[in-house]
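Subject: Predicted fold for S-methylmethionine:homocysteine methyltransferase, 312 residues

User T.R. writes:
Posting the sequence so we have a shared reference for the thread.
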Amino acid sequence: MANTQPIATILNQQKIVLLDGALATELETHGCVLNDALWSARVLLENPELIYQVHYDYFKAGADVATTASYQATVAGFINRGMTEKEAIDLIKQTVILAKQARDDFWQVNESQRPKPFVAASIGPYGAFLADGSEYVGNYGVSDEQLVDFHRQRMQVLVEAGADMFAFETIPSFQEARVLSELVKEFPTMTAWLSFSIKNATEISDGTSLTKCAMAFEANEQISAIGVNCAPTTSVTQAIQVLHGVTQKPIIVYPNSGETYHPETKTWDGCETGESFDQLSVEWVRAGAKIIGGCCRTTPQDILALANKWRN
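User M.O. replies:
I've generated the structure tokens; pasting them so everyone works from the same file.
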């Protein structure tokens, strides 16, 4: 049986929930080529043991959470690669199985040292499936029904595989967030965090204010945390302050390393932020964040620094 309130469980035992860091860009450091519409989901096909290893490395560094490799893993995407529906479903389930195995293997030798980590099933936005950069804009031009049809099956598969909760992440669209917030009600044993991509510190990618987003989902008890990810570190403190002013939910932040992603070429440039995540996290916690980790281009070393700051 999945832990239906994993975030609350850990916050009852420690001040901060520590997320993992980047999966896809960490896989690249292991030699994986991810310039592909499937992104990290491609590794499920070619080298799944590396996904296990990255999850394990983050647990070892101090993460309380493994976020599954299902961000861009969809039935439609795998069928486009020539798979049957059953093969696609089995592969999506594998994202949870790999994360749970890494967690259980880690926990077997670290059980008494800290709260038991949990597995969050990543639900990336519709735009991630399109792989055309629209996940950073959010104006898809599709109906609510199309979004429901796109997300429902994957959510069902991830629940069946035994995920502890959902991670609705890098959501650029208020419409899509609203759809996901309603869809989670079809899975009454599950909770979810809801994390937006942003165009600046006060607006999500489609231009909706963060204030409106936080207020809109405040009454949904299955949304157990709200925040931002895949954002520059320079926007994080103000975004937390905006959210903290209007929500009682724990605030979650997991920004990028500081470099800039170009979706049209699927490349990065620029430099990492001059301050380390453990230094920046002091300001984030002071502003009201309760759940902290890293997104693109962050590493187990970043999570280790956070663990040394907040757990020791």
